[in-house]
Design goal:
Oligomer: single chain
InterPro entries: DUF4192
Structural class: alpha+beta
Radius of gyration: 21 Å
Number of helices: 15
Order of helices and strands: HEEEEHEEHEHEEEHHHHHHHHHHH
Helix content: 40-55%
Strand content: 5-15%
Largest sheet: 6 strands, mixed
Protein name: DUF4192 domain-containing protein
């Protein structure tokens, strides 16, 4: 059952009793955590047979265990189209809800949705759920749940159902396909934290800055080709060279132009290594590249972390602005090939 006053999802029996294809798992099925319901060739499918399965799969879809969060899962023709999350504390009024989730209905006007509040405070959780449902377009059908960390409920004061993702068959299946789930969002941000000392970073960066810019870009292209062909962590000097060259529009176009579903994992790994070996102000564009690769591979949570990391030093860059818009309007990664061609062509004009 759903809480009194909530509209029943027309396909509720399908959601509960028939498989729902989950199209978004890490590098294997990027389009769930990304923003599309179109399957890419070779993408594994996880079948969700009930609301409990879907709730237990949320950490796999996000890449971390949500806390004090509102999670919205949009279902389009029996598939998960997109998963979105916001901090409950941020959703204080109707405008906040519209800012965080309004683009979903523009992008997926025919979808149904499941809204799940993760919170230890049941009253506050259901209050935000009710506010969220009150802001939905009239023709959007919705189901709702609350998770307190140990149990989930499909109505206020309803029956408690066990919540234990590590023991869930669908979460285990996602893990089999390589989906890693971190303890919380902070752990995701920590994947971009430094791995060398600040003095070592500063010294390497100073040496690179002393080099003539065109020479730096040319050398960085050689380093990029070498590390792409034979992956390994870059040295501090190589990382600084790549980070500085990344602010060159021509160099950035080369990097972004090579990002596709097949290469996204390698691009993400390389530029994550760069981010972790340069000062934050120097790694802005490197963080954008990590975010671009994360978006193409469907990791929407990491996209937002990268945007936060890059905004101060790369916020005016075209690719930063594109990534920010893609995240805000739930642009499907399946459209990347077409969009990339148009953007690069426009820059060359």
């Amino acid at each position: 059952m759903v809480a009194p006053g909530y509209r029943r999802v027309p396909v509720r029996r399908t959601v509960r009793n028939r498989p729902v294809d989950d199209d978004g798992f890490g590098r294997f099925a990027p389009l769930l955590k990304g923003m599309s319901n179109k399957r890419q060739r070779g993408t594994p499918t996880v079948r969700v047979r009930g609301l409990s399965d879907l709730i237990h799969l949320v950490p796999s879809m996000l890449g971390f265990h949500p806390e004090e969060s509102l999670v919205v899962v949009c279902l389009d023709e029996g598939r998960v189209a997109v998963t979105a999350r916001a901090d409950l504390a941020r959703l204080t009024c109707a405008d906040d809800i519209d800012d965080c989730f309004g683009a979903l209905w523009d992008r997926y006007p025919s979808c149904a949705c499941v809204v799940i509040a993760f919170s230890t405070d049941a009253e506050a959780a259901w209050s935000v759920v009710e506010d969220f449902i009150g802001e939905l377009p009239a023709d959007v059908w919705v189901d709702a749940a609350h998770v307190d960390g140990h149990a989930w409920f499909d109505a206020p004061f309803g029956v408690a159902h066990r919540y234990d993702p590590p023991s869930s068959a669908v979460a285990a299946e996602a893990a089999y396909w390589g989906v890693n789930v971190l303890p919380d969002r902070g752990s995701l941000a920590a994947t971009l934290q430094p791995v060398i000392s600040r003095p070592e970073m500063d010294q390497a960066l100073a040496r690179v800055i002393a080099i003539e810019p065109t020479t730096t870009v040319a050398s960085a292209l050689d380093v990029l080709a070498s590390l792409s062909a034979s992956p390994r962590p870059p040295s501090a000097h190589e990382a600084s060279m790549l980070a500085v060259a990344a602010f060159s529009p021509a160099f950035a176009d080369v990097v972004v132009g090579d990002i596709e579903h097949r290469t996204a994992g390698g691009v993400r790994a390389l530029w994550t290594d760069v981010v972790r070996r340069v000062p934050p102000f120097a790694g802005g564009m490197a963080a954008v590249f990590v975010g671009m690769a994360a978006w193409v591979s469907g990791d929407g949570a990491l996209v937002n972390v990268c945007l936060e990391r890059a905004v101060d030093s790369a916020g005016g860059n075209q690719w930063f602005r594109f990534l920010e818009i893609a995240a805000r309007v739930a642009l499907p990664p399946s459209q990347w090939g077409e969009v990339r061609t148009e953007l690069v062509r426009g820059r060359a004009a």
